[in-house]
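During the reporting period the student researcher (J.K.) took over the structure-prediction task from the postdoctoral fellow and processed the backlog of single-chain submissions. One of the processed entries is reproduced below for the supervisory committee.
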Amino acid sequence: MEKKPIANDAVNLDEFTLNEKPKKLSKNEKKKLRVITKLIQGEINGTEAAAKLGITTRQVRNLKRQVLNEGQEGVIHKNKNYKPYNTYDEEVAIFVCKLYRKSYRGTNFSEFARICEEEYGILASRSTIYNFLRKGHIRSPQRKAKKRKVISYDEQGNKIIQVVRVYDRKTINNPTGKKVVASTTIKPARNPKNSK
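J.K. obtained the following structure tokens:
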């Protein structure tokens, strides 16, 4: 069976068109389009349109011009479907989370941010690294224990207030990672019956 040679013809890019889906309008954009359409048809004036949309007459004139030039896409904000220039790719966030889970579990987030910058060339601030890890459901090992106030009574009926700290993870205070409850009495309160 003979293989046919592949033709090296140049591809004409003008023949191919991308069939873009029409952009969906939000509720607010539909309202803008309705009001601007009434303005164009002469049913209302610019001041009334500005009052209905809660914008200035200058913005109404700009919207009218955009609708006349671009159709219904004139009411859509030009930055609507674009990602901000200073955001990181999703792959960077996934890489940071996997790296932390695999090699640096238990390292505090500030130190981990420094490691990412020095060893892996990820130029992101500590707060950005923190946001990546929190979105990946990774909690800081330095976070504080939950505190609860517990009111109890001793044998004589005196009120005792305690602060209870619950350690349910590996920390300096709880290296095993088992659930530990540590309580501290902060203020024994007098019973009003005994104070007479």
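The committee noted the following: The first strand starts at residue 146 and ends at 153.
J.K. will present the remaining backlog at the next meeting.
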